[in-house]
Task: structure prediction
Amino acid sequence: MAERRNDNKREPWRDPGAQPYIQIENVTKRFGDFVAVNNVSLKIYQHEIFCLLGGSGCGKTTLLRMLAGFEAPSSGRILIDGKDMADTPPYERPTNMMFQSYALFPHMSVAKNVSFGLEQEKLPKAEIAQRVDEILDIVKMREFAQRKPHQLSGGQRQRVALARALAKRPKLLLLDEPLGALDKKLREQTQFELISIQERLGVTFVVVTHDQEEAMTLASRIGVMNRGEIVQVGTPSEIYEFPGTRFVADFIGSVNTFEGRLIEDLPDRVRIESHELGGVVYVDHGISSAPGAVVWAAIRPEKINLSRTAPAQSAENCVKGVVKEIAYMGDLSIYLVQIGSGKTVRVTLPNIERLSDDERILWDEHVYLSWHSSSPVVLSQ
Amino acid sequence: MPRVPLPSPPHRLLAGRLGPWWQLFFRYGPPRWTLYMRHNWAGGRLVIAVPYLWLLLFFLIPFIIVFKISFSEVRLAMPPYAPLLQWASEKVVDVHLNLGNYLFLLTDDLYISAYLYSVKVAAISTLFCLLIAYPMAYAMARSSPATRNLYLMLIILPFWTSFLLRVYAWIGLLKNNGVINNTLMALGVIDEPITMMQTDFAVFIGIVYSYLPFMILPLYSNLEKHDFTLLEAAADLGAGPIRSFLRITLPLSMPGIVAGSLLVFIPAVGEYVIPSLLGSTDQLMIGRVLSDEFFANRDWPVASAVAIAMLVLLMIPIMVFQRFQARELAGAK
Result:
C-alpha cells in the first residue's frame, strides 16, 4: 500500500506546514498504580489510516478509548480538529467507534442499529431511511436490513458495525481490532474493502490492532506501542525496513539479531564485529553511535541468501552453517540454520521454481549464508 | 479328524445359569421397553416427572375438588355442600350443576369491588416496587462483584425473620402512638398523630416492603448480564445518558421487569395477611373475602367460586407472561 502514497498529499506528515487533525499531547493514563498509557504524543492527519500496533496490554485500546471519550486522560491533552476534548462527553464528539465486540444492539434490526445514530441527530425520517440504505449498500448488507444481529454471521455483524459507525459520516472513525473475529481469508478481503471505503468516504481511521499483517495492509502510518509508550511511528515500509529498536524489529515480522561491537564507524559505512555471528558485519550506511559501543545487527530472514558454494565476495557478510530445520510453506520455505557460534539463523527463500530434491538444499547440508551490505540494520537499543 | 465343539461365548454360559429371562435377553437383546426407557424416559424426564407428580397430587386434584364444589349448593351438613352427582334412581345419575354461585359473584357488589380493589392495590404496589427496585438492581449490577454479593445478602436478609413478624413490626411503626408518629411529634413536626393504620397507604407500604426482593432479584439477574459496551456504543452514536437508558437498557431489561412484576402482582392480588393486619375493614381485598366466605359464612360453594374466579383472573397475566417469554427465548441468541 505504501507505494501508492508517496506524494506529499498522501503523506501529510512529511509536510511541516500541515495541520494535524488529531493532536495527542503528553497523554498519560493511570489506573491506580498501573500506567496504561505513558506520556504519549502523536499527530494524526486527515485521511490517514493510522494503526496503533502492539501486544495485549500495551495501552493501545486505552489510547483509542481516550480518543472516543470513554476514558479521561490522567494528564495531557487531546485535540481533535484543533479543539480540546477534555470536557466533551463521547456523545458530543465528532468521532464514531467500531467496537471489538461490535456492540450491536441485540433488540434492534440491522436497519435500526444503523439508523440509531442518525435518529439522535433528529434528522427527518425520509433522510434517515435514505442514508441507511446508502450505507448498507456500501457494506453490501442491504438485503439483511430487517435481520436481528443474532441472525447474522460474524462477517456480516462486522459489516453492520462498520455501517453503524459510518452512518453519521464522522470525520474520524476509531476501530478497535476491527477484523479480530474474522477468519484469515475473510480478514484479508475485508482489509482491502476497508481501505476502499476509507478512500471513498475520506474518513480518517485510527485502527487498533495486535496483528502486524493487518497493520501493514491497512495503515498509512503505524504507531508501534509497547508498555504504554509509542516506540516508533512510520510508514509500514519504514517500520519494517528501518526498525528503530530491537523490540520493533522483532515485533514486526521476524528478524535475526547479532550482538556485536562497532569496530569501524564512518558516515557511509559501519563494521561490526559480532561474536554471536563469528564474523564481521559490513553495513553500507552509517549510524550515530560511539565506536566500541554494543550494538545489534538485525537482518531480515528474506534478505539472507543460502548457497552450497562460497559466494564470490569478501569474507564479510558471510557465514557458514548447517541446515537444521526446513518448513515448507508453499510460497516460501523457512530454513533454520545453525552457524558456527551455535546461534540459529532463520532464512526464508521464495519457492520460485519447482526444484527436484537434488537441487534443493536439504537437512544437514553445509551451506553459506550471505547478504548484501545494505541489508543489515544497526540497532543500538 | 475329531471335531472339537466350539466353546460357547461366556455370556451364553452365564445365561444358562441365570434363568429364562436372561436367556431371552441374550438371544433377542434387551426387551423393547428398556430401549424405550433409554431413549425416551432417561434422566431428564424422570427428573421432570417428580415435580409434576407433586403438582398433580397437591395442586391439580385439590383444584378439581374446589372447582367441583363451586358448582354445588350450600347445605347445612357435613361437608356443607350438596354433592354434584347423585343417584336419582338405579340407572340415572342426576348431575346437579349449580351456576348460581358465579352469577351471585356478578350480582353482589361486594365481590366485584373486592376484585377491582385487589387488582388496584396489587397494580399500584407493583408499580412502586418497580420504581424502587429498578435503581437498586441497577446499582447492584454495576457495582464490583464483592459489593454485589454483600448487597444480595442484605436483600435476602429479611427473609430470615418470619413474614408475619415483619408485618406486625409495621403496626408498631405506623400506629397512632407508634415509632413514626412519636418521633415526628417529639421533633415538633406535627401536633397530632397522622392516621396511617387502616389506610390504603399502610397496605401499600406493607406490600411494597414485603415483595420488594421479588422485584429486585429478577431485575438484578437481568441487568447483571447486560453488556455495558452497548451503552458506550449508544453514547458514541450521540445518545445522552437518558436516551441510552430509554433505548437500550430499558428494552433489554423488559424480561426482568415482566418477571419481577408478575412475581409481585400475582401474590399481591390474593394477599390476605397484609390487608387484614394493616388495612381498613370497610374495603376488603379478595383474599379476605375468600377467607370470610369459608370460615365465617361457611358457604363453601361461593368461596370456591371466588377462588376459581380469582385464579382465572390471575391466569391472564401468567399467560401473557408465558407468551412474552417464549418470544424473548426465540429472540435470544
About this structure: Chain B has a mean pLDDT of 85. The longest strand of chain B covers residues 85-87.
